[in-house]
Specification:
Layout: E1 3-5, E2 10-12, H1 15-26, H2 31-38, E3 39-46, E4 57-58, H3 60-73, E5 74-82, E6 86-88, E7 91-102, E8 106-119, E9 122-129
Parallel strand pairs: 3-9
Antiparallel strand pairs: 1-2, 3-4, 5-7, 6-7, 7-8, 8-9
Length: 130
């Protein structure tokens, strides 16, 4: 659990604080650092039904491997950007724009919404809409 110190106790980060740290790292394209620092051990990663690119994954190590497998297939990055997060309750969302050349798919452009759920100061769910 990521915590902040108060005078006498540790308190889990709020959703706003998790979203702010996520944004700081996302703007630097530090996606594996986001996973390492902000994801819970039992995080779930959910793709759209029938996604031609990736499958769902569960557990921090499996989600990390999913990311590594994707990066290994990327032949060229043409453009990427991530919007600032919008926070509501224990969720936050960002827009992500990607333009890649990917083995087996050629050049693809994806405009997606990435939704995150936070519990106990960590991300427990990431869900992609594209």
């Amino acid at each position: 659990m990521i915590t902040k110190m108060t005078a006498e106790t540790k308190v889990a980060l709020t959703t706003e604080e998790v979203a702010a740290r996520f944004d700081e790292l996302a703007q630097q394209e530090k996606w594996f650092e986001i996973q390492e620092e902000l994801f819970s051990e039992d995080v779930k990663s959910v793709e759209p039904a029938n996604s031609p690119y990736l499958k769902n994954a569960e557990g921090k190590l499996t989600v990390r491997q999913k990311g590594l497998d994707w990066v290994a297939r990327v032949e060229q990055v043409h453009h990427t950007s991530t919007t600032r997060p919008i926070v509501s309750g224990n969720h936050f969302a960002v827009g992500r724009h990607k333009d890649f050349t990917v083995k087996g798919h050629g050049r693809i452009k994806i405009n997606q919404i990435m939704l995150y759920e936070v519990e106990g100061g960590l991300i427990v769910l990431e869900q992609f809409f594209y």
